[in-house]
Design a protein that fits this description.
It is a single chain. The chain is 41% helix and 16% strand. By secondary structure, the chain is of the alpha/beta class. The protein has 2 domains: 206 residues, NAD(P)-binding Rossmann-like Domain (Rossmann fold); 85 residues, Alpha-Beta Complex (UDP-galactose 4-epimerase, domain 1), CATH 3.90.25.10. Helix 1 packs across helix 7 and helix 4 runs parallel beside helix 5. The longest helix is centred in the first third of the chain and has 21 residues. It is globular. The structure holds nicotinamide-adenine-dinucleotide and 2'deoxy-thymidine-5'-diphospho-alpha-D-glucose.
């Protein structure tokens, strides 16, 4: 089988390529990635010389690039996106371009080339924001209510994917997952930022009151879910994928990391809140469990400890990132720290 993975140099995409080539060494994987600030080929050094792996640097918004890359592809797994909410607040246009237009370009080329499956990676953020005491959590039937430029652009891409299914019978599946964490995450997202800041002896910025709640999914569990959806998922369907966490606030996660690293609460610094900050995401993943037999392999605490260890053992990986362009972004985003 020939797979086209878009955004394969990013956090989840690179974990997925490593997972896939290990489990299915006979498959051929093409990685199409523009290498924005978030793309990092160092994640893939262990497969760069694998004859069944090919990297192509290119933009999913370019019809010419995408049409060429799509030749002979059986399955598309579409990760490429602008993915950070804070950046979407300062630069919404690039999110609309890549996430909406780029997805449409891929869909058109996939249709033209008669791919057997187009799997689209989406997010639980498209469902909006829950109150802390809401009993009804997000599931596949929840109406879309995106509230940031990032989630609005992801919602737009999801609608296009569904439109290509209904209008042109493109064989699609979609997964809407919660917050991923694990190895190779760009240190702008909460868990990777917190671990690496603490390892550097820096403070961790806490937005607002810190009592925001997310559902947390370990990246390898996510890769296993995508694998199962590709194998057994029903065409046209959406699957919600979440972790084994219940109502964990940002502060309680940070306190767990602080404890694992032998630090104190003095490492926390409360800063100005994110505009339009969604209070809570919580995801009901019983559909993928009952229909495809998926569930996370371990609970949050076990995966968190493994993640903290990985960042401790791979300091050079994140130090290279933190000393580059990211330094300028950090100065602007966290001016007072
Ligand atoms: P990431 O930001 O780490 O990686 C994104 C990758 O896409 C990068 O390698 C980047 O270079 C590439 N890219 C960006 N624009 C491109 C373009 N125009 N053409 C080609 N490549 C381009 O993102 P991630 O965290 O790995 O997220 C992957 C996908 O999963 C995204 O679609 C995101 O919306 C979705 N998602 C992420 C999370 C999460 O917690 N990280 C949760 C839910 C859904
Ligand atoms: O829910 C899935 C989404 O999770 C994905 O679709 C997005 O791509 C991904 O970025 C993530 O979005 P969040 O906004 O939830 O993740 P982030 O790591 O940016 O923030 C997690 C929580 O931590 C949120 O409540 C904001 C807070 N936060 C974040 C940062 C970066 C802080 O308190 N301080 C920080 O410095």
């Amino acid at each position: 089988m020939k797979l086209l993975v878009t955004g394969g140099a990013g956090f989840i995409g690179s974990n997925f390529i490593l997972y896939w080539l290990k489990k299915y060494p006979q498959d051929f994987v093409v990685n199409l990635d523009k290498l924005t600030y978030a793309g990092n080929l160092e994640n893939l050094t262990s497969v760069q010389d694998n004859p069944n792996y090919k990297f192509i640097q290119g933009d999913i918004c370019s019809l010419q690039v995408v049409s060429e890359v799509m030749q002979g592809v059986d399955t598309v797994v579409h990760f490429a996106a602008e993915s950070h909410v804070d950046r979407s607040i300062t630069d919404p246009a690039s999110f609309v371009k890549t996430n909406v237009l780029g997805t449409q370009v891929l869909l058109g080329a996939a249709l033209e080339n008669k791919v057997k499956r187009f799997h689209h990676i989406s997010t639980d953020e498209v469902y909006g924001s829950l109150n802390l005491d809401d009993k009804n959590i997000f599931n596949e039937r929840t109406l879309y209510d995106p509230r940031s430029p990032y989630s609005a652009s992801k919602a737009g891409s999801d609608h296009l994917v569904k439109a290509y299914y209904h209008t042109y019978n493109l064989p699609i599946t979609i997964s809407n997952c919660s917050n991923n964490f694990g190895p190779y995450q760009f240190p702008e997202k909460l868990i990777a930022l917190a671990i690496t800041n603490l390892l550097e002896g820096k403070k961790v910025p806490v937005y607002g009151d810190g009592l925001y709640v997310r559902d947390w999914l370990y990246v390898e569990d996510h890769c296993r879910a995508i694998d199962l959806i590709l194998e057994k998922g029903k065409i046209g369907e959406t699957y919600c994928v979440g972790g084994l966490t219940e109502n964990l606030s940002n502060i309680s996660i940070l306190q767990k990391i602080i404890k694992l690293l032998g630090k104190t609460d003095e490492s926390l610094e409360y800063v100005k809140d994110r505009p339009g900050h969604d209070r809570r995401y919580a995801l009901d993943w019983s559909k993928i469990k009952s229909e495809l037999g998926w569930e996370p392999l371990r609970d949050f605490d076990e995966w968190l400890e493994k993640t903290v260890n990985w960042y401790q053992e791979n300091k050079q990986w994140w130090k290279n990132i933190k000393s580059g362009e990211y330094k300028e972004y950090y100065k602007k985003q966290y001016a007072k720290l």
